[in-house]
Amino acid sequence: MINFFNKFKIPTLLGLGIILLGTISGFYLVLREQVFLSQAAPNLTPQNIAITNIADDSAVISWQTKNAANSFITYGQNNPGEQTALDNRDGDPTEPNDTGLKPRLTHYVTLKNLLPGTSYLFKITSGKLTSEVMKFNTANPLVDHTRFTPIIGSVVDGNNPLNDGVVYLSIQGAVTQSSLIKTGGNFLIPISQIRKADLSDIFPLTEELIAKLTINSDKGNASVIFNLQNNPIPLPSIKLGQDLDLTIPFKTPTPSSTIKDLDKYDLNNDGKINAADHAIVLQNFGKNPKDKKADLNEDGVVDQKDLYLMAQKTKELGSQ
User: Fold this and answer.
1) How many separate helices (H) and strands (E) can be counted in the chain?
2) Dist. CA 298–CA 306, nearest whole Å
3) By C-alpha distance, which of 143, 142, 238 is closest to 189?
């Protein structure tokens, strides 16, 4: 009889132990999965979502994620799942065997072949996360252009070109424009068809209008405020971490430069004071300039004060 109970008791206790251990392990795995999801989800959540470059047949949607993620957009007129659009850099036909999504921190999607004056719904899919439904309207076709030249510049991270990021151009009362930063740190933002913020018509660009460039990237941010010009003085190479203000008060031009002016401001010794000299100041921006003449106020560093002095002098003398 005792042997019978022993045979029954040992397997039963062992089975109960296995069941208890399995329950505890399952509970632990569930908790761990919940913790993992709670930690991972915010890192894939789209942030800094921006709708830019709105035209009658296209628009750009950009955002950032803290962790690299495969992302795309679904959109449509009646529901946000009618069509799919990939990042501008995904499935690039110029890249051999490039047909799939790539994990990125900065995301930039152009929606094309849209209808003018139409409302669209869209959602962002980032990894396994899907955003809430958002919407935007396209503009009506334009009959004219501003005929202003594009904004061209470059961005550096320390001494190296920034190869990933987005540049946003903001002008009060106008639709925000944007551009991807290309290899080599370069960017180009066309503004010939920039619209009013309410999309009612083309935005009337004028000389000396204040504009702002904002650079967003996973390596840092920067900004530049400047006066818009149709044939602009080249912008400085924008460094991450900088916030530059290149706006200056307008001065009435004087007829010609003096010998003293040429000695100080004619940095390339061509007998003129113009955009070429301004560019030399920009090229030497920062401490320990290569060209000591670019330090116009002789304080040991080429900075905003030197840019102001050169810009003020070129304004006083006009375009030479």
Assistant:
1) 4, 19
2) 9
3) 238
